[in-house]
Amino acid sequence: MSFTPQYNLLDELKWRGLFHQDTPGAEELLNTQQVTGYIGFDPTADSLHVGNLVPIMLLMHLQRSGHKPVALVGGATGMVGDPSGKKAERVLLDKNTLDKNLRGIENQLRRFLDFDGDCAASLVNNYDWFQNFTFLDFIRDVGKHITVNYMMAKDSVKNRIESGISFTEFSYQLVQGYDFCHLYKNHDCRLQMGGSDQWGNIVTGTELIRRIEGGEAHAVTAPLLTKSDGSKFGKSEGGNVWLDLNRTSAYKFYQFWLNAADDEAGKLIRIFTFLDQNTIENLETEHAVAPHLRLLQKRLAEEVTTMVHSQEALNTAIAASEILFGKSTSEDLRSLGESDFLDVFEGVDQSEMEGVTGMNIVDLLADSGFLASKSEAKRELKGNSISVNKEKVDELFQIEESALINGKYILLQKGKKNYFIVKVKS
Questions:
Q1: What pLDDT is attached to residue 355?
Q2: Least confident segment among 151-160, 250-259, 266-275, 354-363
Q3: CA 261 to CA 231: how far, in whole Å?
Q4: pLDDT higher for 238 or 118?
Q5: Short-list 193, 200, 198, 196, CA closest to 220
Q6: Considering the entire predicted model, what is its pTM?
Q7: For 14-18, 155-159, 184-188, 305-309, which range has the lowest pLDDT when averaged over its residues?
Q8: 362: phi > 0 → left, psi -120 to 50 → alpha, else beta; which?
Q9: Is 409 helix (H, G, I), strand (E, B) or coil?
Q10: How far is CA 101 from CA 61, 63, 197, 211, 244, in A?
Q11: Distance between CA 240 and CA 236 in Å, rounded?
């Protein structure tokens, strides 16, 4: 049966900056046969983060070009820990934590791939084939095919020899290599993709397939993504930017992409969106004419937020951004969930009060500590500089229960930029 891909996968990855290295023959295979290819995700947390979006994009491109993607969650390898790119031994997770992490990651991966049709994706867990694989069976049936010299030559091992590497992490490449071998034998999987730091682990798999199954398999890797200063991509000042809305709100997620530096935005929009080359180049031309409008960053933030979350989440993020940086109303404020509201006003001074229903605004401004005294409150109110939940108020204004945002917050404001939050005790 003849096969014609939707597009040349490696050419697409190259112009997008998603290609680093491949094994000889990989491109010919991808252009002449429908290929099943996989990427592994280790369950180090119950959510993926934006750094994981690179392998996710690789799987999505694989599927869009006409091939079958397999997402492997490492229930077994998560118990071992990948030493690649690590300077010290990982802390091993207990079974309950791993199970929780696996469930979270599996649910997220299902959002990005299509599990129906001619290019249907699959989701597998390597614990399923390792749980009954005894240590003696493993070192006899797998370990005998790979020499210690071969394993020592891998960067993931060489870089840790002086500082020390446990047998657990030393054996990781064999465990991951066997994953590839198992998928080759049971799912006709002939391609593994990943970051460039995974090259050694991946080709260990191709070597096991050659030696155990007498077959041929291939590797394709993407460059490790770093910021222009060389630091790791995917972290903000507050740590990882997660794909879980409960860990990173839509507002913070959107702002992460919106705040991309001008010299990085062009690279990021190629990697993290499916916009075509002509559209991206036109955006770059427009951006160069008026960089202060941040057209490139806005389109990047819109595309990624919609892809990872939803159009609704994007609308929430834009509304939240407008509250701080543009014109907004009390209705916009009330549309925010609690986490988005708190993220928008992160760092704003707060006080906690009870019995505010029916309180006059003068008393609230003074008793909350926002303003120094009732006389200052009256003066500011007469000057029309006080707003409650983004709406101007006068001395006669009283707090009603309906004024509470998410049933517990009141946003006070003096002038344009001086904010204060009152948290109402229930």
A1: 86
A2: 151-160
A3: 14
A4: 118
A5: 193
A6: 0.83
A7: 155-159
A8: alpha
A9: strand
A10: 25, 25, 23, 34, 12
A11: 6
Q: What is the pLDDT of residue 87?
A: 46
Beta bridge partners of 424: 353
Domains and CATH numbers, the chain: 9-222 (3.40.50.620), 235-326 (1.10.240.10), 350-424 (3.10.290.10)
Pairing of strands 36-41, 68-73: parallel
CB atoms closer than 10 angstroms to residue 308: 24
**pLDDT at residue 237 is higher than 70:** no
Give yes or no for a contact between 190 and 37, defined as CB atoms under 8 angstroms apart.
yes
Q: How far apart are CA 251 and CA 313, in angstroms?
A: 8
3-state DSSP assignment of residue 423: strand
Q: List Cβ neighbours of 200 (8 Å cut-off, separation of 6 or more).
A: 84, 154, 155, 156, 157, 173
Q: Which residues contact 77 (CB under 8 A, 6 or more apart)?
A: 40, 42, 126, 172, 175, 176, 179
